[in-house]
Specification:
This protein is an all-alpha fold. Helix content is 72%, strand content 0%. The radius of gyration is 32 Å and the shape is elongated. This is DNA-binding protein S1FA2.
């Protein structure tokens, strides 16, 4: 009995890998590597790069905001 079981396994392994598994490895492997590399770069950038500077608010927008709040704008 054990000899027949071993022969069956050997024949199955001789056929090669399951084609579905090959596709999963070819597509999934690089995808996982890409996601891990993105995460590592993100963490590195958060630690080492300076924070992004905000753009200065234009005087026109500043006036508009103050008018919305009801604060009198100097010079008008």
């Amino acid at each position: 009995m054990d000899g027949d079981d071993f022969a069956g396994k050997a024949a199955a392994e001789a056929k090669g890998l399951n084609p579905g598994l090959i596709v999963l490895l070819v597509v999934g492997g690089p995808l996982v590597v890409f996601l891990i590399a993105n995460y590592v770069l993100y963490v590195y950038a958060q630690k080492n790069l300076p924070p992004k500077k905000k753009k200065p608010v234009s005087k026109k927008k500043l006036k508009r905001e103050k008018l919305k709040q009801g604060v009198p704008v100097p010079g008008e």
